Every structure is written in C-alpha cells, then in structure tokens.
User: Fold these one by one.
Assistant:
Number 1:
Amino acid sequence: MSYFRAENLSLHFGGLKAVDAVSFAVEKGEILSIIGPNGAGKSSIFNLISRIYRPTSGRIFFEDQDITEEPPYDIAKLGIARTFQNIELFENATVLSNLLVGRHRHSTTQLWQELLFLPSVRANEKMHRRRVEQVIEFLDLEPYRDKLISGLPYGVRKVIELARALCSEPKLILLDEPSSGLNVEETDDMSFWIRDMKSELGITVLMVEHDMSLVNRVSDRVIALNYGRVLAMGSPTEVQQHPDVVAAYLGA
Amino acid sequence: MRFLFKTDYEDDIKLFPHSGYWVSYGILLALLLIAPYVLSSYLMSQLVFVCIYATVGVALLILTGFTGQASLGHAAFLAIGAYTAAYLQKYNVPFPVYFFAAGALTGIIGAMVGFPALRLTGIYLVIATISFALIVEEILARWESVTNGNEGMRVKTLSLLGVTVPRDSPTFYYLCLAVLVLTIVGTLNLLRSPTGRAFVAIRDSETAARSMGVNVALYKVKSFAISAAITGFAGVLFAHKLSFISPEMFTLQLSIEFIIVILIGGAFSLHGAVLGAIFIVMIDPFLTYLKDDVPGMIAGIAAAFGAGKATAGSIQSNVAAFASLNGLKGAIYGIIIVLFVLFEPLGLYGRWLKIKLFFQLFPLYKRATFKRQKIYVKSERNR
C-alpha cells in the first residue's frame, strides 16, 4: 500500500470541474511534484487534502487510514503540514510565536494549567522552544526570531512559512509553490532545503511548482495536470517530453 | 539603549525580560498599595472603577484584541455577573462562593454566545453580540421574580470571611486591585502558552491556524468563555461598588465604553487596557466639570468682552443646557473614537511606546518608525 493515496478525487464548483477524478499515490520518502498551467487544479488538490474544500467525490488515504472525513484541524495532527501559495502567516505576531503555533499539534497542556503557568507548562514551552530553535537553525532564520512578520520581506516570509510547517514535525509536507516570488539565489536555497528535508528529516514532500528547473532538481516523480485531469505521470524528463504536456503548455 | 543578551530559552518565556521591569513594576505596585492612605476618597472611588473597567478591558482584549472577535455585548456579561451576585446574596451565600458562581455562570453563558457566533465575522458578529446584550437587558427588566425588574436590586455590603468590607474601604480597593492583577497575570500566562498563541493565530489567519492543527471553533468558544467569565468576576465587584443595580445601568453605552477602553488604550496590549480604563473613568469628572463650571466661565468671558448682563446670562443658560443634553456623553465618546482611529491608531500605549523609543534612541529617532505600512495584500480566497 502506498504511503499517501488519492483515489478518484473530484471537486466540482457547479459545472466547473476543478479537479476531475484524479488518482495518484505518494511513496514514503519521495518528492512528488505536481505541475500544470494556471487553473489546472493543483492548489485545489492541496486544499482538498488539507480539507479547506470538501471533495465532491473520491477518497484520500494517509498511512492506510481514510482521512477524507477528518476535520481540517485533525489533518495537521495526523502529521500533514502545508504552506500556502499566497503566504498565510500570522502578520501581527513575531516569527517565534508564528513558529510556536506550528508546534500546536504537540501541545498537551490544559487551559487551567496554562492560566497558572504550572511547571509542566513551563517545561513544555521550553521543549517547544528547543524544537523551534532546531528548525530556525535548519533554515538559517536566526536574524529574524523576534521580528514581527508584518515588517519582513517576501522571501523571508516564504522561508518562515516553510519553517512553521516543519515545526509541526510533519511526516508529509505539502508545499504550494515554494519558489514563487523568490529570486534565483533564494530558489537555490529552497531546493537545497527541500532535498535536505527529505534526506535529513525523512519527510515526504508533495509540492506544486511552476519553476521547472526547481522541479527537475528536486523531484523524484512528477504529475502533470490540466483542466483538473492527470495528463502524465513519471520522472521529470518523461513528463516534460510527454506530447500532451507539451500541448497543454504550448498549445496543440 | 539596552540590548538583551539571551542565553537560555527561559529568556523567551519569562514575563519580565530584564531586571529593570522588576524595579518599575515594584514601584508601581508600592504606589498602588499606599494609594488609599494618600488619595482623597473621591479619587479612591475612581481608582476602584479603574480597576473594574481595566479588568473588563483585559477580558475584552482577550476576545477582541487577541482572538479578533468583536463584541458589543460585554455590558450584558457584566450584568449577569452583578445580578448573580445580588441574587445569591439574598440567600446568604458567602462571598467567595457567589463570586466564583457568578464567574462560572457568565463563562457558561459566554460559551453559549460563542457557539452561534462561530459562523459570524466582523460586523455581523458585532450585531449578534448587540442583540445578545439587548436580550439580556430585556430579561433583566422582565424577570421580576429574580431581578426585581426595573426597580433594581440592592446589593448588601460585602462580607468576606466574617469581616464586613464597605465599598469605600481600602480593603475593597485591594480586592479589586487583586482581581485586576490576577487577571493580568493569568492573561499573560495564557499568551505565552499554546492557547494564547492559538487565539492570535485565529485572529490573523483562520485558514493557517486550521492547517496548523488549531481547532478554530473550540478556541473561539474558549475565548468567549474566558472573556465572559472574567467580565462576570468584574460584575460582582461592580455590583458591590454601586450597591444598587438596575437594568438601565447595563446598556449599549456601557459596552461601547468597554470598546473605548481597548481602542484608546490601544496597541493590542494589556498596558493599553489599563490606560484606557483610566481614560474612560476620568472622563466623567471632566464632563461634570464641563457641566458645572464651563457655562459660568464662558459667560464670564462674554461679559469681559463687553456683553451685557442679560446676554451673558442667556449665554450661560444656553451653554448649560447644551452641556446637560442627554446624548452628550455618547456624542463625546463617538468623537473620541473617531479622533483616535484617525490620528492615534496605536492608542495611548502606542504613544507611550513612541515617547519611550524617542528617549532610547535619542538623537537618532526617525519619525517613520511607527508609520503604518501595508506591503502585501493578503489573499481572501480561502476565507
């Protein structure tokens, strides 16, 4: 059985089929990229997995468990973290507290304990703080710890979103266009981090990406979508040479 | 300027980042403790109201400032706390019991208000909370067997462990101060733990909060419950301070006053709630002054400029009539809100931060430091 599986996943908005009977599987420890022209349904698939949308039909399995009906907040508890295409950070909070929210799925303390800030809460907070520091070190975010998000440049925000997702210690991470809006150098950094996430942290990566050089560098496999349907699946070169994919990008 | 050198994760957790805070808050606490022996009884009474308003302000800040759920219904929560106390008092329930019972009941009702509010945001939530407040006001006026209707209820003098505590005694003031300090410390504790961070996450992006594993509905209800419970505690003290409560004390205007507390205090900070409370409590003596002294003063000025005695008299009576107009207080509140939103969006505490930074950076202060800027338009797609 595959690690993560989508079966006949569909999302219809009235007559518009944003995602149309898409099936794919992600193996443990691989980096799978989803490519496709604008409006192909890539981000919609992500929003289906993280339950922002409810699928019209189809099922989603993670670690052999059907997660199609799980409430959205439980998806993170299962170990699936995500980033957003148009950065969704907590603007008026510091970088540290943004990252600590990423630790939310590991918090075990009760409200009354927190009101009194009992030693157990303090110990937990220190533990969370230590884990966050490991992620900060991994992504070179040291200069920004106490800065407010609202004052940071786009490139840094992008990395912080990745950091927040990593703070939840996910098993599967969904990256929605990790390189959009980044310059060449930042994109390079991003590609190293994505590979390190796989090799050092053992995280399975599912990503949506437009930058083909990044896709080629990091992906083990690629899925091409158009109009909500799977056009091709396979290694990066195979998919890019597939006639349907070429037609979708360049016109028939 | 002081640079903090952090060597331990504890440095990010502790409430006072450096020793200077202990000194300044220690002095503040000492001043507050000796206040009853220094200040006049009128000012002491105002100080008690500051404590009560600041407690409600902190409660509202948890809900509106940190969780981002606006509420114009906090006067109703205050009323529920006050009436619970007055009602239980009739059956000789001791103070600690009805104090906590009032908090618990208000908290439960707060959670119940939170449930329907889950689907509402922004202005719709405000309307829902106003309706809740109006319903409570109506119930207080109609449920005569419990609330004594529009005639109101007399609240007996507080008796704590067999000792009577009159409402103008130093002990009552210390009690209010203790409730305020405990509320503030509890809130600070909350803010440095997962729950507080979840609140802030919900305020800034519900979608992201959800995808990080925050059960948004649960935390919104929690926020409503905590906020209401604290307001309920404040309501008990409020009832004792006034010694008489009736439905017309808990009107929409009181809810607006609480909003003003956090708006004028500003900067989404607990400091702001306290500063805002001082402001709102001290505006009453100012209005009284306006009513009593200003008409005579204006008449005097008019006379000095050569107006006849009759003209000066008519000016005096006209100004006096204006100053005692019914809606004047509301109008002044409205003007204050508008002016603050336009010219001092960070409120009194924001102004204090600016002054502090000016001295810290002395020759190098830049005016643009606090300039509001919007760099990115956030996506509204996933809301």
Number 2:
Amino acid sequence: MSELKGWKELVPGGLIVEAGNAKEYKTGDWRTEKPELNPEKCIHCFFCWAYCPDNAVIVDAEAGKMLAFNYDYCKGCGICAAACPAKGAITMVPER
Amino acid sequence: MAKVVGFNGNAAVAYAMKQINPDVVAAYPITPQTDCVERFAEYVSEGLVDSEFITVESEHSAMSACIGAAAAGGRVMTATAANGLALMWEMLYIAASMRLPIVMMVTNRALSGNINIHCDHADTMGARDAGWIHLFSENAQEAYDNTIQAIKIAEDLGVRLPIMVTQDGFIISHAVERVEILEDEEVKNFIGAYKGRYPLLDLNNPVTYGPIDLFDYYFEHKRSQIEAIDNCLPVIERVGKEFGELSGRNYELLEGYRLEDAEYAVVALGSTCGTAREAIDSLREKGKKVGLLKMRCFRPFPRESVIEALSPLKGIAVLDRSVSFGGFGGPLFTEVRSALYDAPSRPSIINFFYGLGGRDIYPEDIEKALEKTEEVVKAGKIEQHIDYLGLRE
C-alpha cells in the first residue's frame, strides 16, 4: 500500500486532479487468498493471463513464458487457478 | 444617493440574482419561494441576464444540476423552501463535500406533516449539519444584502463552500418593504469575476469529482471539511465590512441591540429580531436592562463572539422556531448553551419555542420571555428549561 497522506495534504473536496492514476491504487491488499505458481508444472499456455480480470499475470510474450503474478493488483479471485489446465501449477493459498 | 424600491423578500433576492447574473440557475418552484424564481425566470425571458435557466422535475434534480454546473466551473444559484430543501438532502451533503460554492436562497417554511406553508426554521435547521454556511436575514434588505455577500464569501479561495441565505417565509418573502438597491456595476465589481478551481470543462486538466472514498481517506476528507467551514468566519466578517463600505450597511456575524449594559437578553434568528427590538425598547422604557443578540451567521457557529456577547449577562432567553424532537431544547438553545459552558461566567438560559407553522409572535410574547428569565435568575433556580410562547395549553 502506498503511503497514506494526512488531512492537510489532501486536495479540497476529495477530488482526483491527475488523470490516469488508477494504477497508483494498489488493490492487492483486498486479497484473502493468493495464487502461488509452481514453475515446474506450468505449461505456459497463458490461460491464466487470458482469464485474469485484473491483468495481474506477468508474462514474457516473446519468449512465450508465464513468469509470475503481480501481487500489487491481484485480488485473489482464483480464476487463474480454476482456468489452469496443468493441475498443480497454480495453487490458491491463504494470504498471511 | 442609493436607489430605494418597494420589494418583498423574494423580489429583493431575485433582483440580487439578476445583478449577480450567475452562469446557471436550476430551480423548482415551492411556496413561499416560487415568487422569487418566477421573477428570475422573467429576467431570463426578457434577456436581462445571461444565465442558463434549467427547469427541473424536482428539488433533488435542482441541486444535482447545480452541483454539475458548479463542478463544470460555473457560478451557480438556486432557491427552495421546506420540503423542497428536504428533497435536496442527499445532494446538499455532496455539494458541500465537493466544496462547490453554490448560493441558495431558502424561504424558511415548516416541514410537513401536517401540511403547512408558513414560516418556521425546521427546514434549514434540519440541514444544519450538511456542511453549508447558513446566513439568516431579518428583513428584505438583509435578504438582498446577504445574497450578494454570499457569492463573495462562497467563492473566496479560503472558503469554497455552499451557502444558504435564509429569509422567513411569507413574513419576509411576501411583505413589501423599503429596500435600498445597489447599481448593477457596483454589484458586479463587488463580487468580481468567478473562476472555478478545478472545472470539469477544462479539458486539458481532467479531474474526478466524487470518487469512492473508503475507510482509508473518508475521515481525512471530513477533517479537512471541518477546517474549511471553521476557517470561514473571518471571511464572512471581512466581506460584511467591505459590503458596509460599499452600501453603508455593515454586517457582522452577530448583531447586538442595546446589549452594552444589558442584564437580560433574547437570542433569536430572522424576522423575530425586528419584533424583539420593539419588546426591548418597551421594556427599556420601564427601566429594564434588556437587549437582543441577533444570530446572523448560524453555520459556522461563531462560538467566540457568542461567548463575548452573552457571558456578561445574568439571564438569556433563547428563542427557537424549530424543534429537535427528543433533544434537550431547540437547535439554537443547544448551541448557545454549549458555547457558554466554558464562558468566564455563565448566565441562566431558558429555551422558548415559538412560532411553529407560522404562528405569529408579538412583542408582548418576547417581553414575557424576558420577564420569566428575570424571575428565574432572581429565584436562583431553573425549574423549567423549556417553555413556550404563544401556545394554547
């Protein structure tokens, strides 16, 4: 989570005065479970990348490799684990 | 030489609105405000103002349109009363939270039920926690003067908050009185040009109004709103003084009448202050040391000024024209009594409810309130904090 500001630092009226700043809002802390990748079982099919509603799967498209999850934005919905055809490649574990 | 006209309160405010020439007015008619907006609509149809006049299907829509127009960067005004104000409720809070300097005239009228179109203060008192500045007017002249000042106060960069300018329904709104008006140019120069701070129409600098604001920031935003409204007392005072230099009619947060050497005083809002002056003059003739404290600015509540004005007194009668059901006294009583808790000396305070649903109040009622207060002080004990004026048992 980014540093929280005190009330004196805020824009009057609670306005957002800069465009395109949704990425600064790290929604990853909404998570109660997180996906864990087992690289040995991953078949790099990109199903998780295609299904992820938060664009939180990091891939190397040129190399054709699934690399990791972006935990800043992953909300832990588990869709990647459900969509994964390689059993055991993605496991949902409780967030600690 | 000032120009003098015969205006009722509604006409006086409509004329002020014409001179202010706001960018947008969105309003819905409701008695006793209708006359004001009708007159303004005539100015629009005669081409005497440049305002975009939006006729809406409800007061909720009126305030919503005002919020949109103000966020877009316009100078925006509206008017309402009673149940119309109640229907705006949700949007009142949003206008204040977004720091939009909308100016709204409210003709104070009793809230239903039962249905009543006459004056009491239930409507704006109900909205006292919405984050708006509340200025009360004693007569049509003050309604006119307050409306012009409200623009300058609301738009001050240190304020940027919406303001309600109130006048007592029918008693002021429909009674024709002598009103001194300023020249159009004088009003224009006094209020100056308006520049919205974060206008939505500035396409090169896109902004978001009213984003979701949860447990991580909502509290901080409310704290900054508390600061904003508390900080506007000096601005209201400064604008009142500047208006005095322009018009010869000086305005302060409060106005004392024969308070200097007084031992007992009434505290009141709106047109009742005129009635109270009569009562005080009459009691003074009988040798009683009595005075009046008129609350012009009710929100923000000018705590320091109230303490300074009332602390030296022996007894105070606070007149409330609205009820806070189940509360300990009316809204004005609660506020005044609370302010005096830390005062260097604490006068005895009695709350008198009066005038609900437009019931007339007479100088004799106010004399009675002052006499009762004196009796309580002399007895050294308050047996009844809450009393009523002009009520049949």
